[in-house]
Write a structure and sequence with these properties.
The complex is a heterodimer.
Chain A (H helix, E strand, L loop, with lengths): L1 H8 L4 H54 L1 E7 L3 E7 L26 E15 L7 H4 L5 E16 L9 E7 L4 E19 L6 E3 L6 H7 E11 L12 E9 L1 H8 L14
Antiparallel strand pairs in A: 1-2, 2-3, 3-4, 4-5, 4-6, 6-7, 6-8, 8-9
Chain B lengths: L1 H7 L5 H13 L1 H37 L10 E5 L7 H5 L55 E10 L4 E10 L12 E9 L8
Antiparallel strand pairs in B: 1-2, 2-3, 3-4
The chains are: A alpha+beta, B alpha+beta.
C-alpha cells in the first residue's frame, strides 16, 4: 500500500509529458485544419447560394417576361427589350387602339400604324463585356444583370410586306424608367441568341437570317439565354470556384401561337382567346 | 474516509487524460457532419434548379412545335449535351407535316463564348463529365453532362389533348450511378387548338 501510494503521488514522467504534448499538438493541428476546411466550405456554400439566387432571379423573371411577351424590340446579344401587355385582359376591350386603322392592313397602300399601351422590359449586362467564364480568363467578375421596365406605347406597322402581318415593332413613347433593379451580380456570361419563324419554310431560324433589325425583332419567337455567375477565390490554389451556369431556351407563347395557328391567333389576341 | 480522501487527491493518470482528449476530439465529428451535410444540400439545390430548368425548357420546346409534330420529340433517357437548339427543332415546320420543309435553314450564332472542356470527377475515379468533350458555342455547358432527360408523350383517348411528361435525373457528386434518387418530373397537357380537332 505504501509503495502504491508512492507511485500515485508521482508526477508525469518525461515520456508521458512528451507523449501528451505530441498528442495535444496533433489534435490541435487537426482541429485547426478542420476549422479551416469548415470556413472554406461555408464560404463556398454562401457564395454559391448568393450566385444561385442571382441567376435564378434573372432566369425566372426572364422566363415569365419572355413567355408573356408580344414582341422583342431589341435583339442584341447582351441586351433584350421586350413588350408585354400592360393590363389584365378585359373582354370588352378593343385591342386596336387607333381609330384610323384600316383593315386589311396596307389596303390603301399606306403603312398602317397601330399603337398599343404596353410595358417594356429590358434585361442588360452592365459593367462587363461579353466574356468567357472567369475561371478561364480570370477577368471581369463585376458584371451585373439589370432589369428595367417602363410604361409606353408599342408601335406596330404594316409596311406592305406579307398580308395581314405587322412587319415592324418599336417603342412609340415611354415614360421615364419606373423601376431598375439589379438582378444578379458577379455575372460572367450573359449571352442571348434569338430565333424566329421563317415565313417561307415555317422553320425556326436564327434571327440574323431576317436581316433588318426591326424585322428581326418582329419575328423573334424564342431566345436562348446563357447566364453564368462566378465568384472565384483570390487564392489561385483553391481550384474550386463557386459557379452556376444556366443555358436554356425561352419562348414567347404568344408569338408561337401566332405562328402555329395563324388562322386563329393574330397580333391582337391579348389573352390568346383569338 | 481516509481512503476516500486519499483517492481524491490522486492526480489524473495518463490513460484518463488520453481518454478525455479523445472524447473531446470525437465531439467534433457531429459538427463536421453537419457542415458536410449543409454543403451537400447546397449542391443538391443547385442541381435541382438546373433540372427544373431542363424540364421546363423541354416542355416549352414541345409546346412550341405543331400538335402533329409533337410525337417526333418523344425519347428515352438521353444525356444533356450538344446544341441547345437542336437540328430536330430547327427542321420542324410550324405548319406541321403538310408543308414540312426538308432543308434546314440555320445561321451562325453571334457572340464570343468559346467554351471548353471542364472535368468534374465523380466518385471512385468515374468521370461524370467527360473531360474530352469540347463544349462549343451554342452548346450546353459541360456540367450539364451529369443530367439526363426523357420525354414521354401519351395521347388522351377521346380528347384533343396529349399528356407530356418530361423527366430529368442527374448524378450528384459522389454518387456515380445512383441517378434514381434524384429525379425531377414536369407534366402538362397540350391541346390541339385547331377547330377540326373538335369533330
Amino acid at each position: 500500500m505504501l509503495n502504491r501510494n508512492k507511485i500515485k503521488n508521482k508526477g508525469f514522467t518525461l515520456v508521458e509529458i512528451l507523449l501528451m504534448s505530441g498528442l495535444m499538438i496533433g489534435i490541435a493541428i487537426q482541429i485547426w485544419n478542420l476549422q479551416a476546411r469548415f470556413v472554406r466550405i461555408q464560404d463556398y456554400d454562401s457564395k454559391l447560394i448568393g450566385l444561385q439566387n442571382g441567376v435564378r432571379n434573372v432566369v425566372e423573371n426572364m422566363v415569365q417576361d419572355v413567355n408573356s411577351s408580344i414582341a422583342f424590340l431589341n435583339v442584341s446579344n447582351n441586351k433584350m427589350i421586350l413588350a408585354r401587355y400592360k393590363s389584365a385582359v378585359n373582354s370588352d376591350f378593343i385591342a386596336v387602339n387607333g381609330s384610323d386603322v384600316v383593315f386589311p392592313y396596307n389596303m390603301d397602300q399606306q403603312p398602317t400604324t397601330i399603337l398599343i399601351p404596353c410595358i417594356f422590359v429590358e434585361y442588360a449586362l452592365e459593367g462587363g463585356s461579353q466574356i468567357g467564364l472567369i475561371s478561364k480568363n480570370g477577368a471581369n467578375k463585376n458584371g451585373t444583370v439589370v432589369r428595367k421596365f417602363k410604361d409606353g406605347q408599342l408601335k406596330m406597322e404594316d409596311t406592305g410586306g406579307e398580308d395581314y402581318v405587322l412587319d415592324t415593332f418599336g417603342i412609340n413613347s415611354g415614360s421615364e424608367t419606373s423601376q431598375s433593379k439589379v438582378m444578379a451580380k458577379k455575372v460572367s456570361t450573359f449571352q442571348l441568341d434569338y430565333y424566329g419563324y421563317d415565313d417561307d419554310t415555317g422553320q425556326l431560324v436564327t434571327i440574323g437570317s431576317f436581316g433588318d433589325d426591326k424585322m428581326a425583332a418582329a419575328k423573334a419567337a424564342m431566345v436562348a439565354a446563357h447566364v453564368a455567375a462566378e465568384d472565384p477565390y483570390a487564392d489561385p490554389n483553391l481550384n474550386q470556384t463557386p459557379r452556376i451556369e444556366i443555358y436554356t431556351k425561352m419562348w414567347s407563347q404568344k408569338i408561337v401561337s401566332e405562328n402555329q395557328y395563324p388562322q386563329y391567333f393574330g397580333h391582337f389576341d391579348r389573352d390568346l382567346k383569338f | 474516509m481516509k481512503l476516500f480522501n486519499q483517492s481524491k487527491q490522486k492526480a489524473f493518470t495518463i490513460i484518463e487524460v488520453v481518454m478525455v482528449t479523445g472524447l473531446l476530439a470525437l465531439s467534433i465529428i457531429p459538427i463536421y457532419q453537419l457542415i458536410i451535410h449543409t454543403d451537400a444540400t447546397v449542391k443538391t439545390s443547385k442541381f435541382s434548379y438546373m433540372a427544373l430548368n431542363l424540364a421546363r425548357e423541354e416542355l416549352e420546346m414541345i409546346m412550341s412545335v405543331p400538335y402533329d409534330s409533337i410525337d417526333d420529340f418523344k425519347h428515352g433517357w438521353e444525356q444533356v449535351k450538344g446544341p441547345v437548339v437542336t437540328e430536330a427543332l430547327l427542321s420542324v415546320s410550324r405548319t406541321g407535316g403538310v408543308n414540312k420543309a426538308t432543308a434546314t435553314k440555320s445561321g451562325t450564332l453571334q457572340g464570343g463564348f468559346s467554351g471548353g472542356s471542364r472535368l468534374v470527377p465523380g466518385d471512385a475515379g468515374l468521370a461524370v463529365i467527360d473531360g474530352d468533350v469540347s463544349v462549343g458555342e451554342g452548346e450546353y455547358p459541360a456540367e450539364y453532362q451529369r443530367f439526363s432527360r426523357k420525354v414521354d408523350i401519351r395521347k388522351k383517348r377521346g380528347k384533343r389533348f396529349k399528356l407530356i411528361t418530361v423527366s430529368v435525373k442527374w448524378y450528384g457528386k459522389g454518387s456515380k450511378d445512383e441517378r434514381g434518387g434524384k429525379l425531377y418530373e414536369l407534366s402538362s397537357l397540350i391541346a390541339d387548338h385547331r377547330l377540326t380537332a373538335l369533330k
